[in-house]
Amino acid sequence: MASTAQAPNPGARTAHPDHLGHVIFIAAAAAMGGFLFGYDSSVINGAVEAIRDRYDVGSALLAQVIAVALIGCAIGAATAGRIADRIGRIRCMQIAAILFTVSAIGSALPFALWDLAMWRIIGGFAIGMASVIGPAYIAEVSPPAYRGRLGSFQQAAIVIGIAVSQLVNWGLLNAAGGDQRGELMGLEAWQVMLGVMVIPAVLYGLLSFAIPESPRFLISVGKHQRAKQILEEVEGKDVDLDARVAEIEHAMHSEEKSSFKDLLGGSFFFKPIVWIGIGLSVFQQFVGINVAFYYSSTLWQSVGVDPTDSFFYSFTTSIINIIGTVIAMIFVDRVGRKPLALIGSVGMVIGLALEAWAFSFDLVDGKLPATQGWVALIAAHVFVLFFALSWGVVVWVFLGEMFPNRIRAAALGVAASAQWIANWAITASFPSLADWNLSATYVIYTIFAALSIPFVLKYVKETKGKALEEMG
């Protein structure tokens, strides 16, 4: 999907207060895709051990079933832009809603392990679409004066989706007597956990019929009158609609269509700036953040925590994730991207190192010793907090700002692909690594968090307060 950058137009910088509520509703409805992104990504956390038990599979195969959704994510993210440019943003949202719904039903009623994996790929495709369409649509319908704040709805929706999925899982586990395979509504509890996503998926689909198509898309297909009506709805009657349409058309015609070959150069295949973007994406994942969202219940149970308590800790971790994200949203423009990244790296090193230390102790009666157990639990929350207030948000801000205009779209695509691949590598490897040595696994994550500090200091330039045109 094309960039949403537009030429300046002072007359379009403010929205009439009467229209702001309507714009907020539109952005919130579109951000439901982000909610489903977060929900679908982490709901599997509550089903991991039940799937292992029901299908009697080892850690390596189990990891592939969990991680296979990321293949769908990568495909969905790579194709969503072109689909949206061809049929529109709203139709793209509706397709994603259908895929989320189908995936939820299929995952709740699998015949065997292979079709559970297939439903997860379909859900992953929907996640990938939502990760692209939501932010782009919100940027295209938001008045310029409110674009940054409304754009943050997507990230907020993702972390809320993660938290709600863990709260629902915890509630369902309690309803099933603390047994992931306990009977609930005629199914096993883990099946209901995966099936509940039908509710927000259907809501997302219904909301897509209540919001307008992007003016930018309408202009691209020659529907100028409808585009003017929507621009008036979201920006107010005081805006010069003809000038706004001309401005959008000018921006679309002047955008450079970057391609993969534009990224080539330098001594190591890609231009150095592209490698820096890839590095940011890889470090963001190699600290092991998604272990906290895909496997935290399994992790706590492996060191002797009661299943119900392990689900509750997964929920509290998600709340900490929300708090950290809000902190990042408040300070990313005040403190700067680079200082936040460095603060986050230091905090993650401390949290991960303490977890590695705690997990190095032998279990006593199937549990960590009391002191080590509390250290591990607190350190896990510290790690998630520092990740969320830094790398969770800052990396996406960097990737949106750091590349020169002529290669921004293509470079962002490569960096995002690197992120999905790194996410898959961590997700697929954790169960086998944990079986080998849980403490050593966290030492590995600690090393990557530590290496991110000199990487940021040496290679990453601050982008706060710089115009996109200044990125050379």
CATH C-level of the largest domain: Mainly Alpha
The portion of residues assigned to helices is over 70%
Write the CATH architecture name of the largest domain: Up-down Bundle
Low-confidence stretches: 2-15
Overview of the structural elements:
With 472 residues, this protein is an all-alpha fold. It folds into 2 domains: 1-255, Growth Hormone, Chain: A; 258-472, Growth Hormone, Chain: A, CATH 1.20.1250.20. It is 74% helix and 2% strand. The chain is built from 21 helices and 3 strands. β1 and β2 form a beta hairpin. α5 packs antiparallel against α6 (89-108), α5 (69-87) packs across α7 (113-141) and α12 (224-235) crosses α13. It is globular and about 75 Å long.
How would you concisely characterize the structure shown here?
With 472 residues, this protein is mostly helical.
Summary tags:
single chain, 472 residues, mainly alpha, Growth Hormone, Chain: A, two-stranded antiparallel sheet, 74% helix, globular, disordered N terminus
List strands and helices in order, with pairings:
Blueprint: H1 17-30, H2 32-42, H3 48-55, H4 59-67, H5 69-87, H6 89-108, H7 113-141, H8 147-175, E1 183-184, E2 187-188, H9 189-195, H10 198-208, H11 215-220, H12 224-235, H13 241-254, E3 264-268, H14 272-286, H15 289-294, H16 296-302, H17 307-331, H18 337-359, H19 370-388, H20 391-401, H21 408-459
Antiparallel strand pairs: 1-2
